[in-house]
Amino acid sequence: MSTQNTSIKMVRALGFPWATQDPFIFCAYHNDRYPKGNAQLGPDASLGGRAIGQDFDPSNDWRMYHGKTVPGFPHHPHSGFETVTIGKKGLIDHADSLGAAGRFGNGDVQWMTAGKGVQHSEMFPLLRDDADNPLELFQIWLNLPKKSKRVAPHFKMLWADTVPVYEVDGVKVDIIAGELEGHKAPAPAPDSWAADPANEVAIWTIKLSAGKTFTLPSASAGLNRSLYFYQGTTVDADGQEIPSQKILDLHSDQSTTLKAGAEDAYFLFLQGKPINEPVVQHGPFVANDREGIIQIMQEYQATEFGGWPWPRPDQVHERSRGRFAKHVDGRVEEKA
């Protein structure tokens, strides 16, 4: 649905995964009401009737995804782009082919540059055996330009207490990338398209309390910006009533005024200067042409991007471990 005389270029259905614009190439939202956990950190519930290893049924309260014992995504490769994983609620266990590992969530963000190739696993351990284990996260794929497609893999943590929050009169914005009203996000991974301020990359989550108003400020012309309205009833956007489960593609050089309806409204906001290069994607690999895909697939078959140094493909850490990150250089960050 197109619009006129507003900042809104187009309104689209949300779907799954969420449609994105250059420089973003993928966005998935996971919201699972997991039950209490068992001794293996999986669900203390029957798995009967589920497509184990391929459980994406949206009618279920929770899903195993590719996990067979623990929900999540056992080891798999990536190349040519970055993953930005925003753990809003619950915990995620990371392990990778470089020997790095971590446990993060409850507001933390992991920014991983796949670059020339890495394997990793992303598992959702159900640590509580006496209560439910709700999980909510976004995973966003941010493309790399051709000059950075072959950089060394890298990951960094943006811990919850380092992610700036703009909060005023019923408006709460978590700023994972970009800047709002003097609140500037931590530096992203060093080879990221977002590392250059000229690219004006913004990744925000927005909560707008019922009846409250927020104006999304304008930026430079020619950026791609999308606003994902994923939870709530309705929002008034520049005078147009928009129901939930919609994507608003916006003109970047115009501000957009939002007013929540009868319920709190929740949004994900993605913005960036387009890379404007060809994108060829084959599953977890992204290149600029078909030859690039063939090359990276051959490299993966030959090297497995360093192999898998962990005892399990669905590697999880011990139940008692807190939030932490172990980096490739041996540096360990421990959080409460």
From TrEMBL:
Keywords of this entry: Iron, Metal-binding
UniProt-annotated binding residues for Fe cation: 76, 78, 120, 122
Domain of life: Bacteria
Cofactor: Fe cation
Any Pfam family hit: Pirin_C
Iron keyword on record: yes
Span of domain Pirin C-terminal: 204-306
Single GO MF descriptor: metal ion binding
Residue ranges of domain Pirin N-terminal in the record: 64-142
Cofactor binding, per record: Binds 1 Fe cation per subunit.
Family indicated by similarity: Belongs to the pirin family.
Protein name: Pirin
